[in-house]
Amino acid sequence: AEVANAISQQYMLTAVAAKQRNDSSTLAFINKELPRLHAELDKAEQALSSFQTKAQSMQPTSEAQAYLQGGIDFDRRIADLQIQRTQLLDRYTPDSRWVRNIDEQLGQLRAQKAEFDSRFAAMPSSERKNVDLTRDAKVAEQVYLGMMQKAEELSVRRASTTGGAHIVDEAAAPFRPVKPDPLIVLPGGVVLGLLLGVSTVFVRRHVLMGVTDPLFVEARLGVPLMGEVLYSQQQARLDQEIGALQRRSLSSRSAVPGLPARVQNATPADGRLVATGGGVSKVLADRYPDDPSIEALRSVRTSLSLDLAHAPNNIVMMAGPTPAAGKSFVAANMAVLHAEVGSRVLLIDADMRAGHLAYYFGQPNRGGLSEVLKGAMQPHEALRRTSVEGLTLLSCGSRIANPAALLMRHNFRELLQRYSQEFDLVIVDTPPFLVVTDAAIIAGDAGATVLVLRSGMQSEEEIAETVRKLERSEARVTGAVFNAIPLSRSHRYYGYYGSGDDMEPMFDATA
Q1: Distance between CA atoms of 224 and 467, rounded to whole angstroms?
Q2: What residues make up the domain containing 145?
Q3: Residue 335 and residue 481 in one domain
Q4: Residue 475: how many other CB atoms lie within 10 Å
Q5: Can you tell me the distance from the alpha carbon of 442 to that of 430, in angstroms, rounded to the nearest whole number?
Q6: What pTM was estimated for this model as a whole?
Q7: What is 191-252 written as a DSSP string?
Q8: Has residue 215 been placed in a domain?
Q9: Over the stretch 53-94, which tens digit does the pLDDT of each residue have?
């Protein structure tokens, strides 16, 4: 209340001060004009007196009276506008819109006065002269007296302490708070807190965090869950070895044993598998076959074998929504697991943008799929033996800018069909489905597609969009593998495989 009253009082004082300043300014202007107006009045009266003395004071006719009255009205209005114009010029330039508006009114009045004067052109000159002088004297008198009256009014008003506004009622402090009302605020705060909490959980789960529940894929999207693979400490160490080999390979252009001369300066082996797999395997199933995550992948192998019995061909595509889902890890280990039961397996790295399956087997990428599709190598020349009995590798080859164009050529489909006849199982590792179109091109040629997901990495919308794109690509989705599950969320594995120092945490290589 005190603040409101202080504001209103200050407003009243400001309004009074502004009114007094305006009145003082107008009064000063009038006082400056009064001597000039008085001089014009004296001049007009003297001119009229002199003329009437010479003409011996004639009596005006009715026509002269009409001319006099009309002329006085025009001159008075013109004089008022001229005074207004003089006042405005103290604050504005002649080009301002307010001054121009006065000038337009003056022009109209002068034109009307000229037309009025033309109607009395036939009046005798002496009578007309008398009327003009009489009119000038009366107009000068009216203007002077009007300005005197205005000056007196301003002098009185300037002394006044009232403004154009007044306070109707002063503000008073209420006896009790009007707002906030506890009966409304407390329940409202509880409801708002609940809504914010629910919204936070929803945003974190559906927008900021990836899916961590393996059953989401099966329950919400209708994709069968083939297996759950835990995070592995052993694979983490193997990943370091793979990264070191990849860096050495990229910095070195040494010859790859067995590659043909048109790929490198070496003599090809005649029509047989040209690489002997000389590197050390970095595949978890080969190095640590008893790792619990490999046991989980063995159950995936069983499910996949049963499904392939009803598939149109023996080609399996590994697909994932985004990078680092673990496609290459699952592809390499599934190839080893099928080879260990006596199957002749071909592992194809179809990621010609960033593929690195060859490093899992201690080999470089050069001399692989991209060279075959470009015609630089024959299909049998690019195949390489690995250290795993029964497992053959077709690396991605040299990286190219537009691999999708090569995959859309008819010779890629023919290549897959040829390899499908020569091997018991063909596993194809592909680029991320949501990033590039390469996997969508391959999907229709595979008899089975395995969707690889990483725990906490892909959102619900990303997984759902991948499933929709797979369906549009006419892919036959066999199921999903939920990868890199933290041990803290999978105690049933821990209890079955051991505890304490006997337990090895699970992991998957990112791909």
Answers
A1: 12
A2: 1-159
A3: yes
A4: 23
A5: 8
A6: 0.56
A7: HHHHHHHHHHHHHIIIIIS----THHHHHHH---EEEEEE-BHHHHHHHHHHHHHHHHHHH-
A8: yes
A9: 776 655 555 656 666 677 777 877 888 888 788 878 877 888
